[in-house]
Structure formats: structure tokens, C-alpha cells
Design a protein that fits this description.
The chain is mostly helical. 68% of the residues lie in helices and 1% in strands. It is built from 21 helices and two strands. The protein has a two-stranded parallel ribbon. Strand 1, helix 21 and strand 2 form a beta-alpha-beta unit. The longest helix has 26 residues. The chain is elongated and about 85 Å long. InterPro entries: TPR-like_helical_dom_sf (IPR011990), TPR_rpt (IPR019734). It comes from Glycomyces mayteni.
Amino acid sequence: MTDDDVIGLRGKETSGPRWAAFRELNNKAAVLAGKGQAAEAIALLHQALELTYVEDVDAAGLDGRARALGNLAGLAEGQGDTDAALRLAEQALEACYAAEARAGDRYGTVAVRASVLVNRCQTLQLLGRLDEALADVNGALDIVGEGEEGDDAYLAVSANNTRTVLLIGLERLEEAEAAAQLTLRLAAARDPRLTGYPYSNLAAIAQALNDHEAAMGYLRLAEQVHTAAGDALAAALAVANQGRAAMRAGDAATGQRLLAAAEQAFSDGQQPLRAAELRYSRAHAAFQAGDTALAAELLGPAIEVLRQAGHAAMLTEALAVQGDILAAAGDYDKAEESYLAAWQVCEQSGARYHLARLDMRRSFAVADQAAAARTERRRTRLLRRAFDLSLTSALATDAIRHGFAPGRARERWAATVAIPAMAHALSLAAALRDGALVSELLEHMSATVSLHASAPVESGPVDEVPDFPTLEPAQGERLSFTASALVTGDSPDFPATRFALPPRLRVNPWRESQLEPWIRETERRYGFPIRSGEVIDTW
């Protein structure tokens, strides 16, 4: 691989003979990074960076400093050091601003700044800091738009690819497909080696629509493009997504084989965080296939890497699956510890809408424990505990449904999460012989929605939801470092009609509501409204 083979930012005017040694080190590092030799690349980048820390550094040197720091930030994230990634990205942005203050965009520093913003967005998303991540993506889009030539053209592909992944995460699939097709056209015109990324995103869209054959076709195209471009790690990601597609199509053996091959490629390429993500996927698949021993064996090392990296979304899911495994084995105390650890990660990252899903899993585990109780007193105590978790979770997941725009995503959430959650709560209420509460719950479930909402429900973004009660983050493909992003979350840039929350119900005017205290407790527990303040009579 030569310097010309590297996909990245070229700059405008040359930085001159003074910075020739820097350019050579930085470019060699980019080649090594592209080959997956992260440790060697990092060493060269530090050598290059050191050359810029001189008292008489000029604008060209500051531009070079920003480029080296941006590349180091991307490599740090790939190795799971998210603290370093954020610190280096901030330093890169400071260097950009300093270079621009002295020489404007003479050396192409504005494109470097956009690239760092896109890269930092990915890191912030891993940590669950979605508002900040969205701000970075929007900032990059404001800079590059669709691009015309040079660095802006390359970044336009990256930024529009980012927007595609965002829309996939929001399950706005028609818009996501349009964005993916735009990215594909831009990539084909600017650099065909980049077309693998939109192909992978088109695969994710096809997969969400249960078109597994089309998804696999797109993913094979992506693998071929990345392989031809010499990007082994991007090709490995395409293989990993083929594995996920095979699992969804019911071919567990092929899925596990492809996921294992991709995990090994990321390990060999010194990308432990990506390898850990795939190890989690393998563990989840093994658990769903009934191989709990293999699932537990794979999950432990994955959780350690995810925890060290602070990968909030994936760590939550891994800890939740670990809880499921322990509960299935009858180790309910340790299962509860694992669920609570996942709960804490969600709460700290602000993803409160996921807390209800975790509580539902906890409820199922406690209910199973109650079924095995040896005394009626213990059984009743455990049933009440399971019901406490189940009813609040069911009320919350039902309310989250109203935060979706009308359409497929809303119905999917209802069918796979909200309805099973409420069914479980009703079964527990019946087991506890609370007929009055069952009656009010049935009325609650039958209440219609208001047809207009002044603002979206404060329930937050919701990732793609496979069969209840487990969840894997939405799969979309991001570009490699210095031009990468993966975002989920609501954005005012993508408005949609949404329903308002239904009113509270007065089922019997001559009796205190049995459900209202539970509604208030649910709102307190999860921190968002689940019914409007309006009260209407049902009789």
C-alpha cells in the first residue's frame, strides 16, 4: 500500500519543506493504520506530533498537529481508550482553530476540523452522550454539505453516511434508504473505494425489512469493495454483518462462523473494542441457541473490554444478557447483580427509556424464582416483587410507544415490547388476585391516543428491537477513523408527526383509583411522563 492508496484528507497548499519529515511520518502512520498495525501507527504519529511542539510553530505546523491528533484520537477509540480519544480530539480541534486563526483554510484545516467532529461523534455515542454526538454531526454537516471536490468531497461521503446510520437508528427506513443511495452516488463519483459503506447501510435497511437475501447481497458487495481497497478491517466488519444477517435468517452455524472470523480479524488488527463487540454478538447468539456454556465463556472477556472502554450501549446489553444467562441457570442473586449493573450504566448515560426493559427482564427472573419457591409465603413475596418491577415497566414501555411516529417502528415496539410487558404484568396481577387493578389495567390499555402532540414525548431514542426481551443496537456501517460516525437519537432536523400521551382514566368515581399510584411511581422511577395530566371518565 502506498500513500496514494490511503483514503483520507489530502489538504490544500503544501506545508512546505519545513514539515516534510512530519508529512512522511504521518503518511506512513496512515498506511500502517490501514493495514491494522495500530501500535506501529501510534508510535509514528507521536514522533510526528512531537515535531510540531516548537516555540515558532506556524499555521502549517498547527494544521499538521491537528491531523496527527485526529488520527491518534481515532486509533485510541479503536483500542477502547475512549478517555484518550476525547482528550486527543479536543486537542485536535484546538489546533484546528489556532491554524485557522493564522492562515484561514490555506492548508485545508477546515476539513480536518469537520473530520475530527465526525470522529468524536462516534466516541460520544459509544459513551451514551447522544446530545453532544448529534451536535458534532450537525457541525460537520454544516461545514461540508454534499461537497464538490478534494477533502470536502471525501467528507461529504462520510457525513452523509453518518446521516444514513442516524436514520437507521431512528428506524426512519425510507429516509435512510434515500440517504444511503445519495451516499452511494457521492462515493461512486468521488472514490469508489468508499462505496462499501453505503452498501452495508443498504444491507442494514434490507435486513430491517426482513429481506435477508438482499441484505446478504449488499454485504457481499461491501466485503468485495473493502477487500479490493486493501481495507482489511472494513472487510471484516462486512463479514461480521454477514454473520448477523445469517443468524437472523436462522442459519446459526454460518452466523457463528462468520462472526468468529470477523472477531479474529479485529483482534489481529489490534482493534480490541470491535473484537469485543463481536464477541458479545457471538455470546448473544449462543444464548439464543440454547448454548449457555459457550455464551458465558464468550461474554466475560467481552464485558471487561466494553467496561474499560466505557461503551455504554453495548455494555448495557452484555450485562443484561449475562443476567439472563445467570437467571436461566437458577443463580438469581448474581443475575440481579448483573441486571443492576446494566441499570446503573443506562442511568448514568441518560438512556432512561432502556431502564424499563431491564426491569422487565428482572421481573421475569423474579417470577421464575417465585415459581420455584418452597413456601407459599416466599412465593407471594417474590410475586409481589416481580409485579412491582413488571407493572411499572409495562406502563413505561407502553408510554414509550407514543413517542414513535406512526408506522412500522411504532407497531414493532408495541408488538415486541409493550404488549408482552403488559401481558406479563396482567398475569402477575391475576396471580395475586387483584381483580380491581386488572380491571383498571384493561381500561388503561384500551384508552385511545390523542391525535396531535405539541412536542415529541420525552422518552428518548429507541434502537432496533429484535424479539423481546433482548435488544441489540442498530447495525449501520461507519467510515474508518478521521471520517467516522455512528449516531442514534432524536434530532429536530428530522421532524415527524407523533401522538400525544393518552389521558388518565377515572374508572369508578366512587372508588380511589388502584392504578393512579402506580402511574405516579412509574413516572418517578423512570423520569418521564406516561400519561397526560387530563383525567376523563370511562363510564
